[in-house]
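Sequence of Tol-Pal system protein TolB (Wolbachia pipientis).
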Amino acid sequence: MKLFVQLILLVSLFIPYFTKAALYVDIKKSSVGNIGLVVSKCTCKTALESELSENIAKVIGTDLSNCGLFNVKRGAEAEFKSWKSDTVVTVSLSEVSGSALELSFRLFDTFTKRELLTQSVVFLAKDWRKIGHLVSDVIHDRLIGEKGHFNTKITYIAEEKDSNYKSVRKIAVMNQDGSNIKYLTNGDRFVSTPRFSPNGKGIVYISYANGKSYIVLKNLKDHTESIISAFEGVISAPRFSPNGKSLLISHSLGGETNILSLDLSSKRTKKITKGSAISTSPSFSPDQKYMVFSSDISGSQQLYVIDFTNKSKKPKRISFGSGRYATPVWSPKGDLIAFTKIQSGKFYIGVMKPDGKEERLLSEGHKIESPAWLPNGREIIFTRTESPSNSK
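Predicted 3D structure, token representation.
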């Protein structure tokens, strides 16, 4: 038996026009092109304060290092004068009462010798990781001029084998750094393609039973579930509209696979693509004026865009490179489309402009696919399925 392990990976986009965000400190002296940042833990009075401040400092350092915009180092408060970096963040903790603590953090510009910000927050000890991500968000916003994403959650399919070697699939949610995994379904039915609603309050996914496909909405607050709609045939690739009022879905029935729009209020569907071609993986542009999708209209799997402001709504092909293109998804910024590319048996994650120009391949690996954008539109997560060579 072969064991397959599916990993969720992240890639940062180092693209020139992404780095034009406003900077509020002088970073031109940075030799590596990123913002130099030292994360320091201040002296603490108790063992609990010391442990949690160290944990929080590690979270901050990991968050900012992984986003690809910071050159992060650790340092001690006593070394302040010797720090050779663009910026410094210091973290200190003090116990307030019971399990409550107060976190204070300060951000310094070492070139201008001025304090950029100072903030404090009271929290429960059990929430130390969340607080670390919060501080990372604040620092990212202050230095880059863009809202941070470090408190972002990721939903995915967790798959494992039971005692009878049968595949068990569950909807799972975790923090963007891989921590705090929670399962939302128990594995008693086949589920696929979970997607967060735009407001983050729910997750929609597909469930299959008795020859039908069900679109299910999971309420993340009270954990209740409701069936949005049921279809004959196979439903796949659900994707919310940016305003959260509709879903784009791929529907396979009677030898045809087309894209439908489902109004979440009226539950009415509208067919967007027609014909014998296999059209799937739809994704709206942020303004909902366009839709990108994958189709074999031309004979091979390529990417197409439909302009909803054009009366003809005729699909326009945007991918012209060698190989096949799949799973496109529009950036929250609207400036790029991420995709999976399969060429000569190899898988790639790439991006291109909405008109198909400036294609760029970001990652290569064994069965890497299903890219998804983080809210900042700068980073992409995707899955990779590994098949260990020594599996039996």
